[in-house]
């Protein structure tokens, strides 16, 4: 998976198709990401000794194949490529504009 926390992405499939947001958390072993204010669900919290039960809205994970990164130059969705810089460090680039994503 080529995503990092803080990347700006757009959803390309599912009920939130077309919406944009930042990646909050990544689950590499499940190949899923959590994007802020995308794929919102209602979770029922059981009451315990300190607080009463409630219904909380929170983000659910979305599969990484259903999101694409937004190109910083063109502001459109793009694929991620890899190359090396002058110091031989591996960097991520956008395929549309060849801009660095790091």
What does this structure look like?
The chain is mostly beta strands and 102 residues long. The chain folds into two domains: 8-70, SH3 type barrels (Roll), CATH 2.30.30; 74-102, no CATH class. It has strands at residues 8-11, 20-27, 32-35, 40-45, 54-59, 62-63, 67-70, 77-78, 80-84, 90-94.
Task: Compose a concise summary of this entry.
The chain is an all-beta fold and 102 residues long. It has strands spanning 8-11, 20-27, 32-35, 40-45, 54-59, 62-63, 67-70, 77-78, 80-84, 90-94.
How much is the average pLDDT? 95
Amount of helix: under 10%
Shape: elongated
- Low-confidence runs of at least 5 consecutive residues: none
| Total count of helical runs of at least 4 residues | 0
Distance between the termini: 15 Å
How many E-type strands?
10
Which radius of gyration do the C-alpha atoms yield? 17 Å
Main sheet? 6 strands, antiparallel
């Amino acid at each position: 998976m080529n995503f990092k926390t803080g990347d700006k992405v757009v959803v390309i499939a599912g009920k939130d198709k077309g919406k944009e947001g930042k990646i909050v958390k990544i689950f590499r072993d499940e190949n899923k990401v959590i994007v802020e204010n995308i794929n919102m669900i209602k979770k029922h919290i059981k009451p315990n000794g300190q607080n009463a039960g409630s219904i909380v809205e929170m983000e659910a994970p979305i599969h990484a194949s259903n999101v694409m990164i937004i190109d910083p130059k063109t502001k459109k969705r793009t694929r991620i490529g890899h190359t090396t810089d002058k110091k031989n460090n591996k960097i991520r680039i956008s395929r549309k504009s060849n801009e660095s994503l790091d």
